[in-house]
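tool=predict chain=A
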Amino acid sequence: MPASVERGKWGAWDEVADLLPHTYAVAVQRAGGVAVMLPPDPYGVENPDAFLDGADALLLAGGGDIEPATYGAERHMETKGTYRLRDDFELALARRAMERDIPMLGICRGMQLLNVAAGGDLVQHLPEVLGHDEHRTTPGTFADHEVRLRPDSLAARAVGTNRSAVKSHHHQGPGRLGAGVEPTGWGDEDANVEAIEMPARSFALGVLWHPEEDEASRVIGALVAEARERMKAVAR
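tool=predict ok
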């Protein structure tokens, strides 16, 4: 799991830290996996295999906005919190994982990055398109809404149903979809694209919501299960 770089406070300390919400690691561990956090690394931008060789799957987590220059766009005034090294590191990992067909799950920002890695772009401020901000109603809290999923999709199999209540906190989303990327989930109220996948890959899924915040969610468990099957296949 590539990490974010943020300023954090604990005890008497106020330092820049490599971090992810603990709920990601807990969700991976709950499913029987081992969570490994990867700080952004310039070496990995040019040598992603050095990081992927020891991984059975790649989870791209949430976080700040992606630098618009990575998908050839000008910065919108609402695009904030970008960190180019993290973007470049994760894009290198995602593109190489696609080439190697390593199981991959993108969550929120990670779903957006998956689309950018495939050559797509982003809507930088969804409220201008949707006419509401119900996917990020209050800073620091998750908004609850429902998504509908294509019945035959990887998204539906991972979730375990064709319709589900989810927790969201985002203001951006996929615009033009990248090569080989298909939309397979939509907001129940506004038809915003909420899930994407790459059918040509064994497991390449992006969800715009936060399954790590829902103990009942099966999405991260589906990634771990796919990684386990991949390990068994390699061992044969």
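The mean pLDDT is 93. The domain at 4-123+173-185+193-235 is CATH 3.40.50.880 (Rossmann fold).
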